[in-house]
Write a structure and sequence with these properties.
By secondary structure, this protein is an alpha+beta fold. It has helices spanning 3-32, 36-42, 118-134, 141-155, 157-177, 183-187, 192-203, 206-210, 214-260, 278-281, 317-322, 376-385, 388-399, 403-414, and strands at residues 44-46, 49-53, 67-72, 78-79, 82-83, 88-92, 95-102, 104-105, 108-112, 291-298, 312-313, 329-336, 340-342, 350-352, 357-358, 365-366. The chain is 48% helix and 16% strand.
């Protein structure tokens, strides 16, 4: 078989083993996460452990003869709900047995912690699948470690493959969940070379990586390259494109906030005759009325339902329709004419820029209240005066939905006493 085909076959086999091991963990967890009375009916009693037959909870034929044992932890310790003592995969009397050490009172299931570490169960299940596939009897990891140390342990075929699979499962799971904004921190800039640098330290056991021999490291990099091609590369294109779109959207939002804070009175609709010649004023559908209707064409799928401060608008519905993409719609709003500012391009293009009002009692700045107003004007003042570090802090607060802290931070940075909402 061609080398490329062999590598692809290895990837598919790896993926299948990971999926089966994860399903085994899910099935086992559901089976033992039940009331004590039910657990006692399901358990087989042994002198120092409780057993569960995998055929009772797993539909996978590979595990039909497996016996899962929950045994007391030798040192009686747990840490954060994760098993401190490692599990053990072995074959006894020709039947596969998986042993997991948990907090349990000897002979008493009413005091047992059945929360198993997913990494541990998957690791041991993969050992079992490997031993079945290779028709071999696995060597105990403790014996191997005692005989040859960490290098011999981590580079043994059984442990090496289990640790590889453990990291691959972690990377695959994380790749789906990672927000585009931080994708390159975990997975690199979209190239294989950067992924090879970034991924091992984030997703694979550090002792496993540090103890690999030159030969097994070359093997690791080859598998990692195949993993990249099949799992990470397709996602990288999508995530990095979204990151670019989010950055552009953020920049658009910044520009909109700045437009919302327009202060040039001559550009406001009632005063625009001061700067636009009379022969061009006749193109503007405005005759001095106190209120006007503004229009904005939006694309299909645009979530906005109202015209927001800083939005480009038109005084003509037909002009707004020209800027509406097929399937889109036109928003309209009746507003004070003083809240409309000329964009400075041609007579058809305007901004919605509601005036800020000064409170007579405290001299604080107040903002007109209307649907869709969530503080864009205040944010525009913030972005004008904030340092890069302050902007980064504000974005972290908003991302964590800490709106009250963000509001207080905004007031502190701008130095303006704003009306709390």
């Amino acid at each position: 078989m061609h080398a490329v085909h062999l590598i692809e076959a290895q990837f598919k086999r790896d993926k299948e083993s990971r999926d089966r091991a994860e399903r085994f963990f899910d099935d086992l967890s559901r089976w033992i996460s039940v009331p004590v009375e039910t657990l006692e009916r399901r358990a087989l009693r042994y002198p120092d452990a409780f057993g569960f037959l995998a055929r009772d909870f797993s539909k996978d034929e590979a595990f039909k003869d497996v016996l899962v044992l929950l045994a007391p932890s030798k040192d009686g310790s747990r840490s954060g709900g994760s098993t401190v003592r490692a599990g053990q995969g072995s074959l006894r009397s020709g039947k596969p047995v998986l042993v997991f050490y948990v907090l349990i009172a000897k002979g008493d299931l009413s005091h047992v912690d059945t929360r198993l570490s997913k990494d541990l169960v998957v690791h041991e299940a993969i050992h079992l699948l490997d031993s079945m596939r290779m028709r071999s009897r696995p060597v105990g990891s403790a014996k191997r470690r005692q005989a040859g140390g960490d290098v011999a342990y981590y580079n043994s075929p059984e442990e090496w493959n289990a640790y590889w699979q453990e990291g691959a499962r972690s990377a695959e799971s994380m790749a789906e969940k990672t927000p585009p904004k931080v994708w390159d921190y975990f997975f690199g800039d979209g190239s294989l070379s950067s992924f090879l640098v970034k991924a091992p330290s984030h997703f694979w056991n550090s002792e496993f990586v540090d103890n690999m021999t030159p030969e097994t490291r070359r093997k690791f990099d080859k598998r990692l390259a195949t993993f990249w091609d099949n799992v990470i590369k397709p996602l990288a294109k999508v995530k990095l494109r979204k990151k670019t779109e989010e950055r552009e959207l953020f920049e658009d939002e910044q520009q909109r906030m700045l437009r919302a804070s327009a202060t040039d009175d001559d550009h406001r609709l009632p005063n625009v005759h001061r700067i636009i010649p009379a022969d061009r004023m006749k193109n503007i559908p405005y005759q001095g009325q106190g209120e006007v209707t503004i229009y904005r064409g939006i694309a299909p799928g645009d979530p906005n339902r109202v015209i927001r401060p800083g939005d480009w608008v038109a005084l003509s519905k037909s002009y707004a329709k020209k800027h509406m993409k097929p399937g889109g719609r036109v928003l309209e709003r009746k507003v004070p004419s003083i809240d409309v500012t000329w964009a400075g391009t041609d007579e058809n293009e305007w901004f919605y820029t509601p005036l800020r009002k000064r409170s007579p009692d405290r001299g604080s700045i107040q903002e007109a209240v209307y649907d869709g107003n969530i503080g864009f004007e205040e944010m525009s003042w913030f972005y004008k005066s904030a340092t890069k570090e302050q902007i980064d802090k504000m974005e972290r607060l908003l991302k964590l939905d800490k709106l009250k802290e963000a509001w207080e931070f905004l007031k502190k940075v701008t130095g303006v006493k704003l009306r709390d909402r």
